[in-house]
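Write out this protein's structure.
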Amino acid sequence: MLKTDHIEIQCPECGHTEFEQPDNVQDDDFVKCNQCKFEVMLCDLKEAGIEQAKKVVIPEAKKEIEKMLKNALKGFK
């Protein structure tokens, strides 16, 4: 089972994880990093978050799959 169950989206400029956003924020609205004040469209921030998550989850999933295959193939030596 994967160990990571929560990944916070990081600011593309400074890595901070808290953002100021308007009420009823939409994908084409801008959000602002609370630390460096970098402004980015929410849809772009979501895409950045997906890429950040892939960097964590894919290696973790690969290790888990390799472990499962190794255990499943133990008797076939």
